[in-house]
## 1
Amino acid sequence: MSQATITSVINGVDVDRLGATIQAVQQNTSLATFQFRAKNRWITGGHNRSTIQSFYGAGQEDTDRKKPFVLDSDEPPVLFGKDHGANPYEFVLHALAAGLTTSLVYHAAARGIHIESVESTLEGDLDLQGFLGLSDQVRPGYKEIRVHFTIKADASAEVLKKLTKLSPVYDIVSNPVPVSIHIEKQ
Amino acid sequence: MSQATITSVINGVDVDRLGATIQAVQQNTSLATFQFRAKNRWITGGHNRSTIQSFYGAGQEDTDRKKPFVLDSDEPPVLFGKDHGANPYEFVLHALAAGLTTSLVYHAAARGIHIESVESTLEGDLDLQGFLGLSDQVRPGYKEIRVHFTIKADASAEVLKKLTKLSPVYDIVSNPVPVSIHIEKQ
């Protein structure tokens, strides 16, 4: 007997493949191990450039990417840079926006929740007294980040909020991540 | 009597202006208040796009940027995307690399330490069992991030490491940041 193959795509996500992946990971948890990577090179002043290409995941090195993503970061003139790119704190906001949105869309797809549109605005409060070492009472990083989503979808705001908060980036920003730094002098 | 003006630039950073800014902030701490922003729009699946332009800082809205920085994020095929950009977890690594490097370069300049070159490689370990909700024992975010710097500069590895760790992004990733999420249904 021949079998018809129907691919279910919800929110642009192939939910059949997502389901098969979840089953495969349940049977072999090592498939869930990923290592992401970035290389960065200083150019001058606040200007530096990352290249991002290879990663390990699902049991093997990924070879799909034929060329790297190239990302420039710089500071604006008021922070002694030349605006060759968004600054590092703005990249944190982008990473968070992208992570929350992707988590929402993927987890909604897995639950059969259809999403029509998602927009978000993010604000982060930074007091430079911390970075400049002018006060021990002020942390160098963001004091607070506020995210405002506008979403068209067939689920309640409470459910949608819960799905955003499953994001790895939400965890990374909200909770401590151990960062080890090794310096090799040339 | 006329005065000669000598601008001191170290590591591409105008240290005279940096020193004047630190003095100004010491006299009026409200100048250290910055608010950075991002807007994000979902496209489909894992693909979404941030625009970053305006920010508040040094007592006023910044108007130097005539057009926004546009950043695309997506997942690779193995994670059900189409690789239209680095993924959110890779953007975290870029933000961290850029932040550590900028902190090193700026704080070195303020101390008269000359830097010739800075390169870094970053690795982050992510176990997708957390994101997929398959284990309560596995966090969704990075378990650990390792940063390896190769630096040519006239200071010890210990001093250089200390300067990287003054970065706001190091603080954001290493320590908890409060993130508030508000959902508006359309």
Note: Strands of chain A lie at 9-10, 13-14, 33-44, 47-52, 56-57, 60-61, 69-73, 115-127, 144-153, 179-185.
## 2
Amino acid sequence: MTPINIQQKFTKFSKNWHPHQIAIVDDMQVILAKLKGEFVWHSHEHEDELFQVVKGTLYMQFRDKTEIVKAGELIVVPKGVEHNPCTKDDEEVHVLLFEKLSTAHTGNVKHEKTQTHYPKI
Amino acid sequence: MTPINIQQKFTKFSKNWHPHQIAIVDDMQVILAKLKGEFVWHSHEHEDELFQVVKGTLYMQFRDKTEIVKAGELIVVPKGVEHNPCTKDDEEVHVLLFEKLSTAHTGNVKHEKTQTHYPKI
């Protein structure tokens, strides 16, 4: 029940594509991540996933289109939908995610970028 | 799967203490509200509730203390904990909430401020 400062939490880690957990709400978690470049095509069979962009511009690639999500915007990726977040021009994009605690980082895919543990900060 | 601009959504309603739904993530919803003055003491027996402050300063009163939550900060009110959000100096505070679809506006309390329907915007 202590206020959590989002900007301050972003100073606590630097690696790209490494989610860090800042809060839990029932069976969901709030995580922060710094994205740069391209991630991995994947989907989450059973979980929706919300991306709120805090800094920069996120290019959320779907198989049939790319949605541009700017700072102050959010997008919900429905369960089962293949997606691949990426950023352009070497920009580091800061995002806050809401998702089930059970959500696997790269869903059904195993990749060198896959993280299985999200440190609490 | 369309990006949602949070500021733009806030222009779509004006009444204080009237939550509006902007997204659903699994069995949880993202709602926006404009708060001014004092709300109502209540708790949610079965649901946690996340408040992210987008504009202004929220004073989250608990029975034993008040937490000050500024723009760019968030606070999670655990299930069962009595709380009463308020603002000071007639400030209108904008918040984004993340909570179960089942969460009742004023929990176990009925009050003239209680809303039972959150319009989708």
Note: Chain A has one domain: 16-100.
